[in-house]
């Protein structure tokens, strides 16, 4: 599902807004994914990134157990719940630092994934293994690209360590990484532990954003 930009909307008045908030508002008003997310009831335009990655890589299937890391405000969990939950099968666990409004069929945990408590809390509710770990976690940006890269890489690496502990055989790992792809050492580990490792930038990811995604399929176990 790729969307095209329609006619540009201009702000009629600045109404005391700063230049950067005017830029943000203009971008929101002209973003077809923001409009479509509102129309379909998704909490974030990010929902379309997961939809597009799923269309390309076939990630989500009925009955899966899915962990969504960095889930707030909940767009990815909503997409996963729609595509995975069927009657009594399928389970989604969404974790974030931030509180989230409930999503039917999704177990929400508010915790820091990088803390011992957050990680242990999550491990406790995945005793039977997980089919898919998805991570859209991003550290707040500092504007200093190398720092942002390092912090988001650290989150991706921690998500990966968690994934290889909980994934079932043939399980799948999807995570946000910053441009340049995954860190070399992490990529080498992924290639050993999974049958295929690919990078992709979905159309809904803004061209100016350094984000891209790594998709590792076919967990071999360790
Ligand atoms: C880009 S947003 C995720 C958007 C989400 N996928 C959606 O579709 O609504 C990134 C999220 O990562 C979360 N995050 C960053 N560091 C985290 C950490 N250490 N533990 C848990 N969540 C974290 C942030 O709070 C933020 O909500």
Extended strand count: 7
Unreliable parts: none
Secondary-structure element sequence? HHHEHEEHEHEHEE
Quote the average pLDDT. 90
CATH domain class name: Alpha Beta
Which homologous superfamily in CATH is the superfamily? Answer: Vaccinia Virus protein VP39
Provide a short characterization of the protein structure.
This protein has helices at about 20-30, 30-40, 45-55, 75-85, 115-125, 145-165, 185-195; strands spanning about 65-70, 90-95, 105-110, 130-135, 165-180, 195-200, 210-220.
Question: Top keywords for this entry?
Answer:
7 strands; 7 helices; binds S-adenosylmethionine; single chain; 7-stranded mixed beta sheet; alpha/beta
What does this structure look like?
With 222 residues, the chain is α/β, with parallel strands linked by helices. The protein has a single domain, classed as 3-Layer(aba) Sandwich (Rossmann fold), CATH 3.40.50. It is built from 7 helices and 7 strands; from the N terminus they run αααβαββαβαβαββ. The chain has a 7-stranded mixed beta sheet, sandwiched between helices. Helix 3 packs across helix 4. The termini are far apart. The structure holds S-adenosylmethionine (SAM). The site of S-adenosylmethionine has 23 residues, from helix 4 and strand 2.
